[in-house]
Amino acid sequence: MNGDKDFKKHVKAVNTHFSPILDSVAENVSAMERRGEILERDVADLFKAKYMKGCEGEVYDAVVSSVTHWGIYVTLENTVDGLINEFELGAAGYEFNEDKYESITSRKGRKKSKQDLYPGVKVTVRLKQVDLATMKMAFTLVDQKSSRPL
Fold first, then answer.
1. Domain that holds residue 129
2. Which three-class secondary structure string do you get for 76-99?
3. I need a surface site. Which of 1, 8, 18, 19 has the fewest CB within 10 A?
4. What is the pTM of this model?
């Protein structure tokens, strides 16, 4: 039983010693973990960009992953992500629908059609540009495979 008392006494001493700095240590550990996650993402993005460099002009199957007012993000089967920018979509007759976060083919607000683009739609894209400095890829829309989400 004496060992139990010694253990409790030791725990109390440790708590007394570390209590004043515990919040600061926890904040520092959390900040370092966030930095590590950002670095991990950046390294993955850099390797993806290096992998795709030199493949400009190639055609790929992709899925619309997100629709924003500045363009449509697509994800290739190899997990590479990139953007089809709003200017190219506008030239192709697409317009962003803020209410539904989708790009529609008509500028007159008609009902959804097979050509509308929204998350989950399969498309064919061409790699337009790889920027190693920003680790970003730009694509152009070649064709839409179906209007059905995956």
1. 53-146
2. ECCCCEEEEEHHHHHHCCCEEECC
3. 1
4. 0.71
